[in-house]
Write a structure and sequence with these properties.
233 residues; Jelly Rolls; ten-stranded antiparallel sheet; five-stranded antiparallel sheet; 19 strands; elongated
Length: 233
């Protein structure tokens, strides 16, 4: 008996949206930010920011069609009022001040969003625009099978082979023997995160959560704009 398992096996959901590329009409996308105020967002005890252009402590404010995250004491988070537990694709643009640190929350877990080049991080992001606008593209799919071997998540490029002979299992990862007891397979939701079309990470997230999409104010000035989402039907 022989099985071949890739690092990620996507279970397709009928009707899942396909992200559009730049310049195409983004049919089905709904704006999460009206460009004028914080309607549709909540902040700590401020459960309804409808019509407000800033939070009480001014850590988040709106100006010129941008949500501005200001540096201050402690980490603060701004969340959408709405939950997003279907599969979806969310896009937004961000601009980071020098060595600034922010983040985007997806059903709770945080994707680190930073001034990567000047912090010497995410060196694979060759298209990152320092002091310019960068596009974040996050696609969430439920029912994703993830495989971890020796604590390392496999990717689409890896090939894991399991062979059972006379009741004894043996495993080969990319042609090399591995300990079967070190293999973990799980099914859950995964957020595939891109920056300017370049891969950042596959982030494991809950299948469902009362927390929606969140923005973080931490170190340095950070800006977000053109925040829009397309949910699966």
């Amino acid at each position: 008996m022989r099985f071949i398992v890739g690092g990620l096996l996507i279970v397709a959901l009928s009707g899942m949206s396909v992200p559009t590329t730049a310049g195409e009409k983004e049919e089905g996308y709904v704006s999460l930010f009206n460009g004028k105020d914080l309607s549709g967002w909540k902040y700590g005890k401020e459960a309804d920011l409808t019509g407000k252009t800033e939070t009480a402590d001014k850590r988040f404010r709106v100006a010129d069609g941008i949500i501005i995250c200001e540096e201050g004491k402690g980490i603060k988070d701004l969340y959408t009022v709405k939950e997003f537990n279907k599969e979806f694709n969310v896009k937004m643009e961000f601009r980071a001040a020098e060595k600034a640190d922010s983040g985007v929350y997806v059903r709770g877990p945080q994707l680190q969003v930073r001034d990567f080049p000047r912090r010497k991080e995410m060196k694979q992001l060759t298209k990152f625009k320092t002091d310019g606008w960068n596009e974040l593209d996050i696609t969430v799919k439920n029912g994703v099978v993830s495989t971890v071997v020796n604590g390392k998540a496999l990717t689409e490029k890896n090939i894991l082979e399991l062979t059972v002979k006379e009741g004894k299992p043996m495993a080969m990862l990319d042609g090399k023997a591995v300990d079967v007891s070190k293999i973990e397979v799980s099914v859950g939701a995964v957020a595939k995160c891109l920056c300017n079309g370049e891969f950042m990470e596959n982030m494991k997230i809950p299948a469902a959560s009362k927390q929606g999409i969140g923005l973080q104010a931490e170190t340095g000035k950070f800006e977000y704009r053109n925040i829009r989402i397309k949910e699966a039907k």
